[in-house]
Write a structure and sequence with these properties.
The chain contains eight helices and 21 strands. The chain is α+β, with helices and mostly antiparallel strands. It is elongated. The chain binds adenosine-5'-diphosphate. Adenosine-5'-diphosphate is lined by residues 14-15, 17, 19, 37, 39-45.
Length: 344
């Protein structure tokens, strides 16, 4: 069987409160999956249930071909063949890099143990600092030690809890790329949790998007961005402006500016719909046929971002060249380019 982890309708209560409910997804060998969601959505609860620290109220968790949790049974964490890397890395400050890595290998013979430590040091590329202590290392190096320590016992599944939370954005993106390379090279099945979509997208093959304890969507980063099926996904992933609008029976959108034709499916005709306008859907163009009032502006890296008011008071956004800067209160001439709109 290729599945390393299967969650089937997992629910977990904290005291009497339901923290997560009906969670089902699976990981195949070598796959990297991320649970992405806002703070309090239930990410850590799921991770801790997989590690064996939270009991289930219902459902089941299989790790490999072994039942790890049901509502009546929780296999102890140390028998699950799962390693976890904690947010703060939890390295032992009084042990050097080598001894941190060998910590989980106590049951092995000394020769086998030291060979495995050498192998891990090479894998995480820290041979040169094997005798240094955690406080003598950079944050990135500390993270690699935590990863090496977790991977040393050769677990079936690696769990990462907000792996880059303590890093600045530059380091975060670089380390996420490096970590993905390492995990893929060694075919390590990995589940991570994060609230940061860039981190999730940089690392994962599949993303499980959750909110308020339930799964909203599961898909590859590209699928989630290109074809979101929920308003929550479009909003949380910040894919563009979400506006409410009428679609007439002829397939025209009525922004109160004259009708704008679309190619939306007949399912939506004659309805009030929620529409996602992605960046690029509204283009600043002197030859455009619509004028919108500028109600705000912010300077982006090489363009000027404008907030524009639709006649019904809803706000949309567009960016324009810095050369013809306008001020708040002026009108901006635009055209609509509605090839890639999503409707909810
Ligand atoms: P996340 O990891 O996404 O921030 P959590 O899994 O930590 O979310 O929390 C999910 C929900 O469960 C939240 O409403 C949180 O307040 C609650 N919760 C988490 N841990 C406990 C606990 N030990 N006791 C009571 N409620 C908890």
């Amino acid at each position: 069987m290729n599945n390393q982890l299967i969650l089937d309708k997992v629910s977990v209560h904290h005291q009497k409160t339901m923290a997560v409910s009906g969670i089902s997804f699976s990981l195949s060998l070598g796959e990297i999956v991320c649970i992405l969601g806002p703070s309090g959505s239930g990410k850590s609860t799921i991770l801790r249930a997989i590690a064996g620290f939270n009991d289930l109220s219902s459902g089941s968790i299989m790790i490999g071909d072994r039942t790890a949790s049901t509502a009546h049974f929780t296999l102890p964490p140390e028998q699950r063949s799962v390693s976890m890397v904690f947010q703060d890395f939890a390295l032992f400050p009084h042990l050097d890099v080598s001894r941190n890595i060998s910590f989980g290998l106590q049951s092995q013979l000394p020769k086998k143990r030291s060979d495995r430590v050498e192998e891990m040091l090479e894998l995480i590329n820290l041979q040169d600092v094997s005798h240094k202590y955690p406080h003598e290392l950079s944050v990135g190096q500390q993270q690699r030690v935590a990863l090496g320590r977790a991977m040393a016992p050769n677990p079936r599944l690696l769990l990462l809890d907000e792996p880059f939370a303590s890093l600045d954005t530059d380091n975060r993106n670089r380390l996420a790329r490096e970590m993905r390379k390492l995990l893929k090279l060694h075919n390590i099945t990995t589940l991570l949790v994060t609230h940061d979509q860039n981190e999730a997208f940089a690392l994962s093959d599949q993303v499980v998007l959750i909110n308020s304890g339930s799964i909203q969507e599961i898909g590859s980063p590209t699928e989630l961005v290109q074809r979101p099926t929920t308003i929550f996904a479009a909003d949380f992933l910040d894919l563009g402006d979400l506006i409410e609008i009428n679609l007439d029976m002829g397939g025209n959108l009525d922004f109160g500016l004259g009708k704008i034709p679309t190619h939306l499916s007949t399912d939506h005709l004659g309805k009030r719909i929620k529409l996602l306008l992605r960046p690029g859907a509204i283009i600043c163009d002197d030859n455009g046929s619509h004028m919108l009032k500028i109600v705000g502006k912010n300077l982006l890296a090489s363009t000027q971002g404008y907030s524009l008011e639709l006649p019904d008071g809803q706000t949309v956004h567009c960016s324009a060249s810095l050369r013809k800067e306008k001020t708040v209160g002026e009108m901006l001439t635009v055209r609509f380019c509605l090839h890639e709109v999503s409707v909810f």
